[in-house]
Amino acid sequence: MPSPTPGRTTPGRHLRRRLSLLTASAAIGALLLSACSNSGDGPSGGAAGANPDATITIGSLNEPTTLNTVKGGNTGHAQVLLRNVVEGLTVLTDDGKVEPLLAKSWDVSPEGTTYTFHLQPGVTFSDGTPLKAADVVATLKRVTSDESTSARKKDLSIMKTIEAPDDSTVKVGLSQRSQSFLFYLTATGAAVTKAGAGNPETTVVGTGPYTVGGWKQGDSITLTRNDKYWGTAPKNKEVVYRFFKDTTAENNALLAGQLDLVTQVTSPDVLPQFENRPEFTVVEGTSTTKELFNFNDSVAPFNNVDVRKAIRQATDRKALLNAVWAERGQILGSMVPPTDPWFEDLTSIDDHNVESAKALLAKAGYANGLTFTVDYVPSDSINIVAQGLKSQLAQAGITINLNPIDDATWTDKVYSNHNFQATIMTHVNQRDLVWYGDPSFYWQYDNPQVQQWVKQSETAATEAEQTELLKKVARQISEDAASDWLFLDPAIKVASSAVSGYQKNLTTDSFYVAPISKQR
């Protein structure tokens, strides 16, 4: 089974709470904005009149802490580097599919434990050095080395042998069949870099369409077009990521014409200043950012499935979503976003029904009500969710005591020591349903059948078999009310109407900038 906590030293590596604060109103249901005008599907690049030597300036709230591909861990690290400066054997596309990149193709042995990758011809690093299979071997060994703190280090430790039979072939032997192996290879840590290029914390040489032209720490990173790039040339000459500490400064820069695009809008409150203005485009896509109300399933009263189901039925997920995102995003019925291959709409399970919730509580022995404490790390959006849950659950006779704590306390108390009753947390990863197959994970859900299905899904003979097994997992954890999955955040971008070609969704770790074009 893939590790539910690959390479984690803090929950921020996989359970990243949004780093910026939302500015939504604290009144449940009060945020009702009109639908975006000038919105679309992420306008396609290459429009007539585009300037091939344009500079694209992008606003971001997430500056990388390092350029070391086997370290990092925050969102900005992958957004800047992955697919832009460094590339892997495989790539995760904006619609959640794994496709070839540096690997032109691959063969898999009948038992599923040996992968033979055939590299793309004519690939060079940005300094002109030809890419050889030995470079890939070195990278794959590095991501599982003592140096690495990559989020996928433990998952990729299934690689037992990594060899280069010739300069264009990489052969990897696995300890067991892994249907997720090609997905794991899409991670930043598995992206190929040139060894010995300099201090890896500040220098990276890859095969991507850009080089790092400069990093003014605390301010910006400049990516410069790689004219030696082996693939399709970028539609711009330079991309500048400007980093901001808060959304107000970022939005003001966009309004002032200092930015062409922001990577993610963190609240619908900012949108009215850009709507109905022809110089801006607002685009909404989907994401993998899931807002969860989690229980400690191993302790009373949450070890009683009827209590958990009652809490879910007392929760009006749609009202919470609208309070935070004003008619955007979507409610969830399990841990699976639409871009994961095993998605099914399970929102009808334990749908909002206060009277049924009361009956379930009575059945569980809590006819006179129930009281428990919710630990959470506050932000404007999480505060709205917390207050909304308090109000909604009270209608079913459930009293929750809200206990705001800081990140470090949450990590120690909830994630590491499991010393909690319930918590609110944001989970951002793709394909993280499998964490419910690990009873030691912080919510301590323990269902042997689910654990068996998760294990079998990883060693399944085909992708179709894996998908069917994980659909069973998704349905079972929903029927068990293992958590209260609230909603999926939307991916909203605001851009100058002069630019096009940017990705619509927020479903991968990277923010691919090569297709972005800008009118003259």
Automatic annotation (TrEMBL):
<feature type="signal peptide">
    <location>
        <begin position="1"/>
        <end position="39"/>
    </location>
</feature>
<dbReference type="GO" id="GO:0043190">
    <property type="term" value="C:ATP-binding cassette (ABC) transporter complex"/>
</dbReference>
<feature type="domain" description="Solute-binding protein family 5">
    <location>
        <begin position="97"/>
        <end position="427"/>
    </location>
</feature>
<dbReference type="GO" id="GO:1904680">
    <property type="term" value="F:peptide transmembrane transporter activity"/>
</dbReference>
<comment type="similarity">
    <text>Belongs to the bacterial solute-binding protein 5 family.</text>
</comment>
<keyword id="KW-0813">Transport</keyword>
<dbReference type="InterPro" id="IPR039424">
    <property type="entry name" value="SBP_5"/>
</dbReference>
<dbReference type="InterPro" id="IPR000914">
    <property type="entry name" value="SBP_5_dom"/>
</dbReference>
<dbReference type="Pfam" id="PF00496">
    <property type="entry name" value="SBP_bac_5"/>
</dbReference>
<dbReference type="GO" id="GO:0015833">
    <property type="term" value="P:peptide transport"/>
</dbReference>
<dbReference type="InterPro" id="IPR030678">
    <property type="entry name" value="Peptide/Ni-bd"/>
</dbReference>
<dbReference type="GO" id="GO:0042597">
    <property type="term" value="C:periplasmic space"/>
</dbReference>
<protein>
    <submittedName>
        <fullName>Peptide/nickel transport system substrate-binding protein</fullName>
    </submittedName>
</protein>
<keyword id="KW-0732">Signal</keyword>
